[in-house]
C-alpha cells in the first residue's frame, strides 16, 4: 500500500487506490450537525455535513509541529476514525514510509466546518466536467493511468472517460476523480474543484476516497483553510509504539467481528 508522502501538510489518510471522494449561501440548506454529541442522520447523502465550533479534532503525522498555513489538512472527529488513524494508519506510516515517530495533533474547530453533501460533491464534479469535458476527462485518464502504475483502479469498465455519459461519469468518473486528491497538487481538476468549493463558501470536504473504504472510517474530512478554521492545542503528542499497537489491535478486533480485514 502506498501512503501519501505529503501527510504533514497535504496528506491523504488512505492508500493509493482508495479513491476519495456546496454551499450556496447564505441562506443555504445546512441541516446536519455533528460534534458535541450529535451524529449523522441516515439520509446524510442529501444533507450537508457540519462539525460544530468548539469540537476537538485529530490529525496523525510524523511531524511534531505542523504549519496550518500549508492547507488543506485532513482531520478526523469521530471516535472510530480517531482510532483507525492512530492505530492502522500510524502503523502503515511506519511500515511503508519508514516514519520513526508518530504524533497525534489536536485542534479545536474555531468556525463551523461545513462540507457539501455526497450528492453536491458529485454535482460539483459534474460542473467541472460540463465546463470543459475534454480537459476534465483528459485529467481523469491521467489519474487512472497513475493509479494503474501502482496496481490499483476504481474504474470498472474499459470505456474511455471521454466516451462516458453523465451517469457513468457520476459513478466511475467520480470514483477516479476523488483518487486524485492523494496527489492533488498534480492535477488541475482537483485544484479547480477545491477552488469551486471555496467560491460556494464551503470550508471542508468529506473524504470520499477513504469513507467506508479504509477500515470502515465514517467521516474523515479535509479542512480547506486550516489556519482560519482550526486552532492548535500545542504541538503534537508523541504516540509510542505500544499505544499504536494496542490501538491497531482494537481496530482489528472490531473489524474482524464484521468479517473485515485490517488495512494498514
Characterization of this structure:
This protein is an alpha+beta fold and 264 residues long. Helices cover 38% and strands 14% of the residues. The chain is built from eight helices and ten strands. The strands form three sheets. Strands 3, 5, 9 and 10 form a four-stranded antiparallel beta sheet that branches. The chain is globular, with a radius of gyration of 18 Å.
Q: Radius of gyration over alpha carbons? A: 18 Å
The description of the largest β-sheet is: 4 strands, antiparallel
Strand content: 5-15%
Q: What's the total number of strands?
A: 10
The helix tally amounts to 8
Q: Find the structural class using helix and strand composition.
A: alpha+beta
Question: How far do the termini sit from each other?
Answer: 8 Å
